[in-house]
Amino acid sequence: EDQVTQSPEALRLQEGESSSLNCSYTVSGLRGLFWYRQDPGKGPEFLFTLYSAGEEKEKERLKATLTKKESFLHITAPKPEDSATYLCAFAAGGGADGLTFGKGTHLIIQP
Amino acid sequence: KAGVTQTPRYLIKTRGQQVTLSCSPISGHRSVSWYQQTPGQGLQFLFEYFSETQRNKGNFPGRFSGRQFSNSRSEMNVSTLELGDSALYLCASSRGTGDWQPQHFGDGTRLSIL
């Protein structure tokens, strides 16, 4: 069964303290791995798409990487405005059942 | 460029009623997908429409239905509402179907069932 697990569920960091969020997935025929950010009361905001193992994407303090079993979202020198829930999701070939989302990592950056 | 617009933002209904939610995609986007978000289950795929045709459907009962119009706007309908239908309903649009372009989400409709 296709599934995705995110860890940790919650993470509290000091401003400037770098860390990584994990997204482990099991899927037959990965078509794409997506990272989103969701703020309270808002819809998910698209961050990155990764299509194949070894691919990396960067945007400001965020860097996403992909292996055959996991994706990581690295956050370098985070600021309080980076506080949000980070969601990963995959699109699988064959069934085409929309995006399958993880439960998310709730990130808090303390000043 | 305007984003995905969902109306209404908040809705309160009672059990047994029905409800219709609306979604206007980003201009030029032809695919619209709907998701249900709850604290326990997270985001779950409901269905996808492309060129007025339902292309994919998630594992939800037939009480959940939708449609898409020629201008790509979409509506979702839930009949015979149950308490468990209380959730945030999110609409997402993308340029096409099957090409795995990123889906862009609206801010959702918060549905509360009393």
Describe the overall structure.
- The complex is a heterodimer of chains A (111) and B (114).
- Chain A has strands at residues 3-7, 10-14, 19-26, 30-38, 45-50, 56-59, 62-66, 70-75, 84-92, 99-101, 105-110.
- Chain A is mainly β.
- In chain A, the strands form 2 sheets. In chain A, strands 2, 4, 5, 9, 10 and 11 form a 6-stranded mixed sheet that branches.
- The mean pLDDT of chain A is 94.
- The N and C termini of chain B lie far apart (37 Å).
- Chain B is mainly beta.
- Chain B is globular and about 40 Å long.
- Chain B contains no helices and 11 strands.
- Chain B has strands at 5-7, 10-13, 19-24, 31-38, 42-50, 53-57, 64-68, 74-78, 87-94, 104-105, 109-113.
- In chain B, strands 2, 4, 5, 6, 9, 10 and 11 form a 7-stranded mixed sheet that branches. Chain B has a 4-stranded antiparallel sheet with strand order 1-3-8-7, with no helix packed on it.
- Chain A binds chain B through residues 31-32, 34, 36, 41-46, 49, 51, 87, 89, 91, 96-104, and chain B through 4, 33, 35, 42-48, 55-56, 58, 90, 92, 98, 100, 102-108.
